[in-house]
TrEMBL record:
Gene Ontology molecular function: any one: nucleic acid binding
Domain RNase H type-1: 36-163
UniProt-recorded name of the protein: RNase H type-1 domain-containing protein
Family annotation (InterPro entries): RNaseH-like_sf (IPR012337), RNaseH_domain (IPR002156), RNaseH_sf (IPR036397)
Highest taxon, organism lineage: Eukaryota
């Protein structure tokens, strides 16, 4: 697929974006367009919001937009817009095109020699079909939101498509379905976790990975996890031996990990010596845990 690389025009590849003004972007883009005066400009963009997912293609001032399945990712939206742009090139009587996108990942994906992503494969196939017609397609990457009119119009059209109630494209790639299911399972897990009241749920309110020890030995790891769960020999041995729970000799209240580490005045000096913070939760979820 090396012939694709020769027609991939990467705008501003060697320029630090933060050092460029909007006017400079526009001037550079106009310079690129002047080098291809006979090419028709085709702009693509994709958008994912809390409302939905949309794709858009803009050419000659006319916007074409599609509402995608809400489970689709922003990357899929960009890929679908690129695919539609190539289909437009296939159907058009024009022979030369300049496809403009602000998604570098899409261009990198369809330039792979052995792509595994199904949308990249579709885009490559569509590109080959268009080129078999004897048509010319060049690609330009531009930064988003720098005032390039066609790019801004495509961005707005894709955004507006996210509000459409009717879904135009129900196809969803497997990777997006997998991500969606993981997010839903995590959400349901979080809801169940929030309803229980345990020592671990107090110091770990979110179902995500906790802070881990730096290069811990297994012994240190076991100790820290027992403290996080709140089950230690001194606080829970009575359950194994069938005895009454232990009480703090100094405070005369139930002996718990929280009481020993955070509350009992008997260990105030030890807390200062070992840099134990007043916030009990922070002690188990920060670098201080080391």
């Amino acid at each position: 697929f090396l012939h694709f690389l020769s027609s991939y025009v990467l705008l501003f590849r060697d320029i630090f974006l933060e050092n460029f003004f909007y006017t400079a972007y526009l001037q550079e883009f106009e310079k690129i367009c002047s080098e291809y005066p006979l090419h028709q400009l085709v702009y693509t963009d994709g958008s994912k919001t809390a409302n939905g997912v949309g794709s858009a293609v803009v050419t000659e001032g006319i916007a074409h937009q599609w509402s995608l399945d809400p489970k689709s990712s922003a990357t899929f939206a960009e890929q679908y817009a690129m695919l539609q742009a190539m289909l437009y090139c296939y159907m058009s009587d024009t022979r030369m095109f300049l496809i403009v996108t602000d998604c570098n990942n899409v261009l990198n994906g369809i330039s792979q020699i052995y792509p595994s992503d199904p949308m990249n494969i579709k885009c490559q196939s569509a590109l080959n079909v268009v080129r078999d017609q004897g048509k010319s397609i060049k690609f330009v990457w531009v930064p988003s939101h720098v005032g390039i009119p066609g790019n801004e119009q495509a961005d707005q059209a894709a955004y507006q498509a996210t509000f459409n109630e009717q879904i135009d494209v129900e196809f969803v790639v497997a990777s997006d379905i997998t991500k969606y299911l993981k997010e839903r399972y995590t959400m349901e897990w979080q809801e169940k976790w929030a309803r229980i009241n345990t020592h671990l749920s107090q110091i770990k309110p979110a179902v995500k990975d906790l802070f881990t020890l730096q290069h811990p030995s297994r012994e240190e790891n076991v100790k820290m996890h027992r403290l996080r769960i709140g089950h230690t020999k001194i606080t829970h041995q009575h359950l194994l031996k069938g005895r009454p729970p232990r009480y703090c000799n100094h405070c005369n209240i139930a002996l718990t990990v929280m009481h020993i580490i955070n509350d009992c005045p008997l260990y105030a000096v030890e807390r200062v010596r070992h840099n134990i913070m007043p916030n009990y939760v922070t002690n188990f979820n920060s670098q201080n845990a080391n």
